[in-house]
Write a structure and sequence with these properties.
Blueprint lengths: L19 H8 L2 H9 L9 H9 L3 H9 L2 H4 L6 H12 L5 E5 L2 E5 L1 H7 L1 H8 L7 E3 L7 H13 L2 E4 L3 H10 L3 H19 L9 E4 L7 H13 L27 E5 L3 E5 L1 H7 L1 H7 L6 E2 L10 E5 L4 H13 L9 H10 L3 H12 L7 H10 L3 H13 L1 H4 L3 H13 L10 H13 L4 H21 L4
Parallel strand pairs: 1-3, 6-9
Antiparallel strand pairs: 1-2, 4-5, 6-7, 8-9
Helix pairs in contact: 1-2, 1-3, 3-4, 6-9, 7-8, 7-12, 9-10, 10-11, 12-15, 13-14, 16-17, 17-19, 18-19, 19-22, 22-23
Length: about 475
Amino acid sequence: YLVEHKEVELNIRDRWDSTPLYYACLCGHLEIAQYLLDNGARCEANTFDGERCRYGALNDTIRTLLKNYNVLTARTVKRNTYDEFLRKLYEQGLYSDVTFVVDERIFPLHRCVLAARSSFFHEAFEGRWHGKRNINLTKAKFNVDSFESVVRYLYTNCCEISLDNIDTVKALARSCRLPHLIDLIERKKHEIDQWQASKTASSNIYRLVLEPDEDDDSIRLDFRMLAEQAIPLELRQWIAGSEMPFIDQPHLDTFSDLIFIVDECYYFHVHQAFICTRTEYFSALIKNHFNEMLPNTKQQNDTKSTVMLKHIHKEHFIPLLYYIYSDECEISNDCVDDLLVIADELFLPGLKRLCGNTYSKLLSNETIISILRLARLFQLVKLENQCIRFISDNLEEVLQQDEFKKFVLEDAASVVDRQETDTVPIIDDLRFYLAEFSTVNRSDIDETLEKMKLLDDFLDNIGVNA
């Protein structure tokens, strides 16, 4: 329920820096440990978390589970979709526009990502590396593993570092002007040193696994800036916390490689690495599957492809753009209906959930049934549960609505070969909520019984036996 319906982050830490997986191992809950691992709990071998879980495990069965578990194959795409996108963007190098060579290893990367995350790279791409597509770092003072760690951090806010390589990575991070990465390394190393000092037996930790702090939104803010730069000057918005609007910084649009024309007059300079990797719809569109490509014009850079978007208006495309780049966006009540349809067409379940969050704030006696229908139509489980809770809390008023009566009758008719004693889905959900979440004390039990009777009387009145 917590993981699949409430979407609680299962790698969350308490004040003792302990995760749910650690407690499951400590208490010997094998099935829970297996479930957490299958759904993305982190427990890599030879890391702080991995060794701590192994050391604290109640029995050998759980230690064997941890030892045999392959974290790389068990990460789920369903959850942490944005993190998965960033990881694939780095590892697969799709739509790369610059290649680095370090110790004969080739890194297909993206100028927009590196420049957005590091002022060093931004200045270098506009200066000494301007126009270069292949950059050979043969005389570098760092090794390939250090470069890989820093670049992975720039893409994902996460990385692994060998303990033997810490000083080299810190030096490279200092050159790339990444003070936050240096701080993360030092804090994680201090944690490991303290933990090792408290144990009598030797540990097998030889890697640091760096993850962002729970409140660290730096990568989303950096990529949100990329989205802001993609928007035409006349449409750019202020960013919360900025002293100046980006409208005063038109030169920041340096590394876009695609132009979308919206409403026939607004030119959005976007990046294929984000647009085409986040949704298959735009990837197919760019490949000319829908014959919407336009020839380049003198108004645009000759190296950029131009695409006319005919069915998405600017008021919907702007929040869509913010979501694609940063996994977050503000959705107004006026555009949520159209944006939900667009999110469904573009196969963006995360954007659909954000639309669901907007609808949840609009719940009232007047809107509850229409929003419940939307939640079911677009398979928004969390929103549907919120609707059930609202109806349960306002049962007497909702039962008087003709729309609710119609909804229940439709629900009853939807059950194939329904018998008189069969239940009705909406009634089932209401009874479940009332039984599970409203029986805390005696007064709640009395209230629940009254509401159960209201439901039974309502079903009798409309002629449904459930």
